[in-house]
Amino acid sequence: MPLTAPPEPRTSHEEGAMPATLPEPRTPVEGGTVPLPVLSEHLRGLADEQGGVLGVPPGLMADDSPGWIPVSELAREPYGPLLALVDETAERWSAPRHVAAALLWKTYTYWNTLPMVLGWALERRVPLMRLADTLVRPSDAGVTIAATAVTVAVLPGDPLAGAPGTTVVPDLASAIRDALLDGQHPLIRALCAQTRLGERTLWGSTAEAVAHPLLSLVPRDDVTRLLTEIGPPVNGLLVPDGDGYRRRTCCLWVTLPDADPCSTCCVR
Length: 268
Prior knowledge:
Elements (H helix, E strand, L loop, with lengths): L36 H13 L19 E2 H4 L5 H14 L3 H27 L2 E3 L5 E6 L2 E6 L3 E4 L11 E3 L3 H12 L1 H10 L4 H13 L8 H11 L7 E4 L2 E4 L21
Parallel strand pairs: 5-6
Antiparallel strand pairs: 1-3, 2-5, 3-4, 7-8
Helix pairs in contact: 3-4, 4-7, 5-8
């Protein structure tokens, strides 16, 4: 699953860590979000580069078209909507179910993580989509992820600090970590419960979802520093390799017939 639109997967979860509770915004924003013009323009540019195929709307908010599934339903037993997405991925790639689950996660975590890390790099403002506020649907990008409400994490000195729809945090890396645990760990647990996958394998894709979009924007040392500051569950799952990195875990793409290893594959 070469990294063009989606990324290359995986990382690990610290033993015993529990999903974080995201801080409440000062005042919820109904039907909209705090403007993030630089991020939105960057996402529009990515969509143009990829012929309109992007797994997150530039404005992050869901439209009123049909087909959206609340992500909270994916993490709820008996996992019917989640397994339907896995089976769709399996059919697309002619993959066994556990490989399809890993590839679905590689796509999902990329689009879910992308706005946070780009917001960090471009504006030092991190849009947070709570699990309860996130929607997903199948698309040409694999899946498209959007929100019904977004909270923007900002630093104390930010001019937006205290504005409606923001939450002031001491550091943005910890806000990203809390968002990953809140929004992604329940899905990782659900996928692992239904397949032969381990959490470390799936968190590996999240680690790559943090790193891959940033390498064209910031030096690799800054990417490494961000992963370190985020800490578990993503720190330590990538190692430096030339100007980029190599994964410590495999997204399982290479197990498919005639599939070439990803450029960052740990078995390359």
